[in-house]
Structures are given as structure tokens and as C-alpha cells.
Amino acid sequence: MDDLILKRISDLIADHSGLYVRPQDFQLLSDKVWLRAKALGLRTLADYHDYLKDLDHSSLALDSFKARPSLPQQRSEWQELYSILTINESYFFRDSNQLRLLSDRLLPEIIQRKQAAAPLGSKPSLRIWSAGCSTGEELYSIAIALDQLNLPWHQWDVQLIGTDISAAAVHSARQGLYSSWSFRQTSAALQQTYFQADGESYKICDRLQQHVVFQVGNLLKDPCPSLGQGPDGLDLILCRNVFIYLDRLAIGQIIQKFHGALVPQGYLLTGHAELYGQNTSPFLITSFPETVVYQKPPQASLPLPAASTTAVQWETFANPQPSRLAVGTTPPRLDDSLTAALQEATEFLQQNNYTGAIRAAKQLYLTHPDCTAARQIAARAYANTGCYSQAKQLCQRVIQDHPLSLDMHHLLAQIAEDENDLETAKEHLRKIIYLDPDFVKAYLDLASIYDRAKQPEKAKTTREHALNLLAKLPPNTVLDDHSDATVAQWQAYLKQQVAGGDRQSSQD
Q: Which residues pair with residue 125 across a beta bridge?
């Protein structure tokens, strides 16, 4: 009975926001909606389903419930639910390769084009939308990038708009206050230039904050962002790591909204492989070494942003850089006849040229079936483009031949976590810990999963074990190839997390 009710609740959530809850996640959904049902004084999940249904159809039938929440409380219930359903984890200059492409190529091209098109005597305009902005780090990173390009703010009409379905995340973004953990990929010089200490936090400088606006917005339902003249005229839309939570129908509708909101030659950047299988034919699709970019065609036939890029269909291949999956280490040396080809594939991978890495590695393992190192390279490259099915097949093949291959188990755990399959992720991480009790990264990932599963005691115990392992390592050691965070920084962060958990427990 509960599964049927949870299915109905998940359908309401999908209809309202596009958020997709998989059947294997119904237990986690149950835990969360029970919190809201109890807060409203409702006795069953069926009552909560009916409550949401009435809200979503603007039929506020209060008489069906013994609890009598006020009308404002009712209207905010979707926000209360989204605050516990969504994960607002971000940091400054996340996905550095995409930001480098923006800073080095796309933003200068947009600025030059808009400046040339501005009527004589008027300010050129610049409109950028961070859709699914979380707590604001992405949009403020764009503001910093524009300032680093020496944009003369006073000579431009600039609007940087961030929207998110979570009112709590938007409130936090508007404050512009961030803990040190949000700066784990930010240089000290940039942090000092654009932020000032505010107690234990850091506040974005007023000079940039005045150009940034945050709004609560439902990508599926709302005509957001509200720019006065309507949700159009946008030069750039960033919607990264959002579509992975949405169903296919909702994604298709949102893509159409994005296309309509962009100016001709405007750009859309998404997370890695998030639009795989969607109809992206209205866009020009350009594959850069850093990522795939979607551009609204010009009104007349004009060249693409750079002659060195090649327009490709997404179905052929897309090669964005990873947000979190590890690149790994150089594969072991084979006989001399294979060394050069294997080294080439390795260099492609390390340079984030995943198209080249897959092509070179695939040729190697097809002609040399025993070349495990080539399969490892291809698995990482596929994973870093979001082609998880191919990556998992290669990982399993390597594990079949080499059961103690910790890096392939770790890659499978990361893929499972990205797919929100937390139980499978935990299985792989526990296997890694069994095979190598000192594999500290497995403990860090496992603690993060326990947080997502609302298991604070297990998360705390796991972090304490990780701290014991970190104490054995040199403080300046970097644990992750895609993060500059050192052992010392991880220790400081984990101690803060453990202490925060202790304070929460004492309050409870």
C-alpha cells in the first residue's frame, strides 16, 4: 500500500517540478515525506498525497483534514518539500574546464558581439541565467570571471540571474556568505580580492553582488527568470547538474524554454551528457576539448565561434570534462610495441580530451584483448562524459580479470552515486575498504552517502576513521586529481563536520 501511495506522491512531484524519484529510492522518499506529513499534523501518507494534490490543483480542500494549516503554510508546502528533497552542494569555480572555456572563449565572444551590436549612444546589454543556481557559487564565479576580463561594469547593462526551486538555497545565495569549504578550488588571491571575512564566513564584495539577482523558480512551471520584459533576451544559460534529477519529458520541455529564451547565437551549457537522447536539433552543437556547447543558430548563416571547432551531432559523441570522477594514474607499462600508443591514450585522458582517449584506448584493447590498461583508460573517459553504461561494462571486464582492481571498484562507486544508486555505491565502497582498509577516499565518499541517506551517526563514525587515516599522511598531499584540497584541508573540514554532528546530537 505504501509503495502505491509513494508512487502517486512521486508522480505529483514529477508533474509539479519534473523531479524524478526512482522506485528504488522510495524508502528515502518515504522518510522525507513522513517528516512533512507529521509537521502538518497529517496521520498517513495518503493524507499527505491528497494534501499535495489539492495544492497542485489549487483546490484547497481544508475540510478533509483534522489539521488546519493556514493558507500561507499550504502554499509554501512545495517549498518545504523541495528543501529536503534537493541537494544544494556547490563551490566556487566548480568544473574548472567549463569555466576556463567560458573565460577564454565564450564570454569574450559574447562581449565583443554585444558591444558591436549595441546602438550608438546606448549601453550594450549582457544577460546570463544560472538555472538551478543552488546557493549561488556558480553565478558569483561567472561575475568574478567577467571582472577578471576587465568588463567595464558602469558602461554595460548587466543582469546576472540565478534561479532555484529551493527557497532556502535562494535565501542563502542572496546573503552571499560562504564557509571556507566553498573555496576548495579557489586561489587565495581570488578569495582575498572578491571576498571579505564576516565572522567565520566570507562575503562576496558589494561591487559584484549588486549585479547579481536570485529568484525562486520552478524550471518546469514558471516563466523564469523574471527580467521585466519577460524570460528572453538571454546571452548565456548555465544549467549544470540539474537534468540528472529530472524525467525525460520535463527535460524536453525545459530545453524548448531555454531555446526560446536565448538570443540568436546565445549559448547553453549543461552538465556532462545530461542531454543525451534528447532532441537538441534546434541548436548548433559544438564539441570543444573542455565540453559540449549548445548554441542557438543565428538569424542568418554565420560561422561558429571558432574556426578550429567542429559542429557535431550529440549522438556521434560529446566530450565534456568531469565534475567529480577521478582521472586516475598512468597505466602500467606494457611491451615496447604498445608503450607509445598507451602513452598517447593516457595523455588524452589527462588533458581531458575524452574523444581522443576513447579512440586510442579502444583501438588498443580491440587489437590487444589482454590490454587491461587500455580498458581502464576507456572506462574513465566514458564515465567522465556521462556514458555510464559503456564505463560500467569496461569496469566489470577489468574486475573479472583482476578482482583486486580498486580503482575500477571506486569508479563504479562514483558512477552509482552519480546515478543516485546509493546502495550499489555503498557496496563497492565497502568492498574497497575490505580489500584495502587504508583507502581513505572510500571513507570520504561513504560518509557523504550516509549524509544523503540521513544516517548521521554512521557518517560521523566514517569521518572519524578517515581522520585517523589522514593523520598518517603528509599534510600537503592532494587526495583527488580534480581538486586541490590537501590532507590538511580535508582534516579541517572533517573535524568541522564531526563537531557539527556532535552539536546537533546534543541539541536533539
A: 157
Q: Which three cell numbers stand for residue 493?
A: 573540514
Which residue in 132, 136, 112, 133 sits closest to 124, CA to CA? Answer: 112
Alpha helix positions (H), 42-124: 45-56, 71-75, 77-85, 96-101, 107-117
pLDDT digits (tens, 9 = 90+) for 114-160: 999 888 889 999 999 999 898 999 999 999 999 999 999 999 999 99
Of 241 and 256, the structure prediction assigns the larger pLDDT to 256
What is the biggest distance separating any 2 CA atoms in the chain, rounded to whole angstroms?
A: 80
In-domain check, residue 316: no
Domain that holds residue 55: 2-85
* Single-letter amino acid code for the residue at 389: S
Given its phi and psi angles, is residue 73 left (phi above 0), alpha (psi -120 to 50 degrees) or beta? alpha
Would residue 317 count as lying in a domain?
no
At residue 400, the pLDDT reads 84
Q: Tell whether the model's pLDDT for residue 439 goes beyond 90.
A: no
Q: Mean pLDDT over all residues of the chain? A: 80
Distance of CA 13 to the CA centre of its chain: 20
Q: What is the 3-state secondary structure (H, E, C) of 171-214?
A: HHHHHCEECHHHHCCCCHHHHHHHEEEECCEEEECHHHHCCEEE
What distance in Å separates the CA atoms of residue 24 and residue 33, rounded to the nearest whole number?
Answer: 16
Residues 283, 343, single domain; the answer is: no
Q: What is the pLDDT of residues 373-402, one digit of tens each?
A: 999 999 998 888 888 888 999 999 898 888
Rounded to two decimals, the pTM is 0.57
From residue 289, how far is each of 211, 319, 351 by CA, in Å?
31, 7, 9
The pLDDT > 70 percentage for the chain reads 82
Banded pLDDT at 83 (limits 50, 70, 90): confident
DSSP label of 419: T
| Element housing 267 (H / E) | strand 262-270
Same structural domain for residues 386 and 503? no
Q: What is the pLDDT of residues 53-74, one digit of tens each?
A: 887 554 333 333 334 344 344 4
Q: How many domains are contained in the chain?
A: 4
Within this chain, do residues 170 and 238 fall inside the same structural domain, yes or no? yes
Q: Which are the contacts of 392, defined by CB distance < 8 A and separation ≥ 6?
A: 412, 415
Of 398, 415, 432, which one is at a domain's C-terminal end? 432
Would you state the cell numbers that stand for residue 252, as one nine-digit string?
524536453
Residue at 453: amino acid letter: A
